[in-house]
């Protein structure tokens, strides 16, 4: 199951999307530090950690690193990171 989900996103165009989302989300973290510190970090630091996990996953997938073990494919599954990244960017730019 994990292998098929990971192979679903193991395409060049989705890797490019991961790279672009990683760049945008990283820039957003650096330019909206107050939002991350007060709104997300003040409520619960777990939200900020999930966002940082999403950024790391998108960078790993965007660079094209090959993951061979199933546990690493589960931990760095890009589908979940896409959802978190889009949700975070929506919160930053549309709900603030």
TrEMBL record:
<keyword id="KW-0812">Transmembrane</keyword>
<dbReference type="Pfam" id="PF09600">
    <property type="entry name" value="Cyd_oper_YbgE"/>
</dbReference>
<keyword id="KW-1133">Transmembrane helix</keyword>
<feature type="transmembrane region" description="Helical">
    <location>
        <begin position="72"/>
        <end position="95"/>
    </location>
</feature>
<feature type="transmembrane region" description="Helical">
    <location>
        <begin position="36"/>
        <end position="60"/>
    </location>
</feature>
<protein>
    <submittedName>
        <fullName>Cyd operon YbgE family protein</fullName>
    </submittedName>
</protein>
<keyword id="KW-0472">Membrane</keyword>
<feature type="transmembrane region" description="Helical">
    <location>
        <begin position="12"/>
        <end position="30"/>
    </location>
</feature>
<dbReference type="InterPro" id="IPR011846">
    <property type="entry name" value="Cyd_oper_YbgE"/>
</dbReference>
